[in-house]
Design brief:
single chain; 46% strand; 228 residues; 15 strands; three-stranded antiparallel sheet; mainly beta; 3 helices
Length: 228
């Protein structure tokens, strides 16, 4: 095959624990003792010797608290090599946590380091807004996380905005849990925000931290639904 045909797409050696290979794939450098939790079925390729375990014991206690529709089907990956993950062509964002606390919509979790602290997180004040469930996956510690977005995401540093940022709850992917969050009702903007006149609610974030938003208002739908 002509090398010019694969230029820019060929596999390259990892430079960090987790990084992008293109916009829709995560590349993870695997080493013994550095296990990874990944969405079941998300492995698209790997190099080396990597094994997978569905429903590992470390997840069972956490899974007991997951509610229908919010459970993330995860597998544990371990071994040595390079692992490639994807989720039906969704955009992938790889984030290094440095003692941070991140709340992620369950449907947007792709992978995270197994040594991170994680669990079901009740999202106060969100249930009454359209499209969001009562629970997210909370992740904290030092390590890497890969999340998905239906389209290229917007990442906002709230500390740089000088005020509040308002987000459609259905487009919300993840946020730093140290942010102050409150709901806002906007009757006059109801015909302009979202896709229907009934979408008159936004979430306001302020403080130090990040908010990640996807260009889609169906965060609760699996991407596979669009493949059928």
């Amino acid at each position: 095959m002509d090398q010019h045909m694969i230029a820019g797409n060929a596999a390259t050696a990892p430079t960090v624990r987790m990084e992008n290979h293109g916009s829709a794939m995560a590349k993870v450098a695997m080493q013994t003792g550095q296990d990874l939790y990944a969405r079941a079925g998300s492995m698209v390729a790997y190099e080396g010797y990597i094994q997978y375990e569905a429903n590992p014991p470390g997840l069972r206690q956490a899974a007991a608290g997951w509610v229908t529709g919010e459970r993330v089907p995860l597998m544990r990956a371990h071994g040595d090599g390079v692992l490639y993950l994807a989720d039906y062509g969704a955009n992938v964002v790889c984030l290094p946590l440095q003692g941070d606390n991140l709340s992620v919509n369950a449907s947007n979790v792709l992978a995270f380091d197994a040594h991170l602290q994680f669990g079901v997180q009740r999202v106060k004040g969100v249930a009454k807004f359209a499209g969001q469930g009562l629970f997210n996956i909370g992740l904290s510690g030092h390590g890497w996380v890969a999340i998905t977005s239906r389209g290229r995401p917007l990442v906002v540093d709230c500390g740089q905005t000088g005020g509040e940022i308002y987000v459609d709850p259905d487009a919300l992917v993840a946020w730093s849990t140290g942010l102050e969050m409150k709901g806002k009702r906007s009757f006059k903007a109801s015909s302009l925000v979202g896709r229907g006149s009934g979408e008159a609610y936004q979430l306001a974030f302020s403080g130090q931290g990040y908010v990640i938003v996807q260009p889609s208002e169906d965060s609760t739908d699996r991407l596979s639904g669009q493949q059928n």
